[in-house]
């Protein structure tokens, strides 16, 4: 199913689960909250070698595809590529958030994870802005 075949539903647009704009906003707000909670102590230099978990690697690989997705979307003038990319990124971030804890992790690991989540939030925000959606920091 292509995202261009999307069936609109008033019931669905306000759900925070599933592939909706609210889900993107919720993920962005949750990641913003992580930065507010832990940012001051951990947003310095970080060691990327601490990001060896499969969830971290999946996110990093997905983040690397953002330029490709933007290019494809600009070539065929279809925002669905960006939408699909952002939804996948949000799902990856949600799974990682459950297992890649910052609190009670060694400082070097916590800092690397926080930088990873910060990169996800930044890409989510930029992608939403390209789609005409203003990212929210609280829900």
From TrEMBL:
GO molecular function, one term: arginine-tRNA ligase activity
DALR anticodon binding domain location: 24-139
SMART domains linked: DALR_1 (SM00836)
InterPro entries: Arg-tRNA-ligase, DALR_anticod-bd, tRNAsynth_Ia_anticodon-bd
Record's keyword terms, sorted: Aminoacyl-tRNA synthetase, ATP-binding, Ligase, Nucleotide-binding, Protein biosynthesis
GO annotations of cellular component type: mitochondrion
Keyword Endoplasmic reticulum set for record: no
GO biological process: arginyl-tRNA aminoacylation; mitochondrial translation
Catalysed reaction equations from the record: tRNA(Arg) + L-arginine + ATP = L-arginyl-tRNA(Arg) + AMP + diphosphate
Enzyme Commission code(s) on record: 6.1.1.19
Xref: Pfam families: DALR_1 (PF05746)
Function: Catalyzes the attachment of arginine to tRNA(Arg) in a two-step reaction: arginine is first activated by ATP to form Arg-AMP and then transferred to the acceptor end of tRNA(Arg).
Family: Belongs to the class-I aminoacyl-tRNA synthetase family.
Name this polypeptide is given: Probable arginine--tRNA ligase, mitochondrial
Organismal lineage: Eukaryota, Metazoa, Chordata, Craniata, Vertebrata
């Amino acid at each position: 199913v292509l995202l261009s075949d999307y069936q609109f539903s008033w019931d669905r647009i306000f759900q925070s689960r599933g592939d909706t704009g609210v889900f993107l906003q919720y993920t962005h707000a949750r990641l913003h909250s992580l930065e507010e909670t832990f940012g001051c102590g951990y947003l310095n230099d970080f060691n990327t070698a601490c990001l060896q978990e499969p969830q971290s690697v999946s996110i990093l690989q997905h983040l690397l595809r953002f330029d490709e997705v933007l290019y494809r979307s600009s070539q065929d003038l279809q925002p669905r590529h960006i939408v699909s990319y952002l939804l996948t990124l949000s799902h990856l971030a949600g799974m990682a958030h459950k297992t890649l804890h910052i609190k009670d992790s060694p400082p070097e690991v916590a800092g690397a994870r926080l930088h990873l989540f910060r990169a996800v939030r930044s890409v989510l925000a930029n992608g939403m802005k390209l789609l005409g959606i203003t990212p929210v920091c609280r829900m």
